[in-house]
Design brief:
Order of helices and strands: HHHHH
Largest sheet: none
Helix content: over 70%
Number of strands: 0
Number of helices: 5
Shape: globular
Structural class: mainly alpha
Distance between the termini: 19 Å
Length: 126
């Protein structure tokens, strides 16, 4: 399971420290780092939304979902520090909640299921 979680996080974006090539400009490295952090924050927010809203509609693999969230949180804390990571996660939680309220849990969960199935992540078992 650890390999699956690592593969998902690596597929989402480069690692938090960034693997900027020597010829990459500092702005490119910063952009990659920002993209990585944003991706990790969205993973945590998506998993929270899935746990809160999608279980009534689909069977969720709690071990995979929890593992994704925990792994992303640890990476965020390492990259940002605990307080900044918590602030970013809280803001993303609110953004996801607003999105779910706007589009509806049925549509949001179906979209998440499609996205994760396309990426080969088995958070949804049915």
């Amino acid at each position: 399971m650890r390999r699956t979680l690592l593969a998902v996080l690596l597929a989402a974006a480069p690692l938090p420290g960034g693997f900027a090539l020597a010829e990459d400009a500092p702005d490119t490295a910063l952009s990659k780092r920002t993209e990585t952090i944003d991706g990790l924050v969205r993973i945590v927010g998506a998993q929270a939304g899935i746990v809160l809203h999608c279980r009534a509609l689909y069977t969720v693999d709690d071990a995979i979902s929890d593992g994704l969230s925990r792994t992303a949180r640890r990476a965020l804390e390492a990259a940002l520090g605990r307080r900044r990571a918590e602030t970013a996660i809280a803001a993303e939680g609110q953004r996801a909640a607003d999105e779910i309220a706007t589009v509806g849990a049925d549509r949001w969960c179906a979209d998440q299921r499609d996205i994760l199935n396309t990426d080969g992540v088995r958070v949804f078992l049915d």
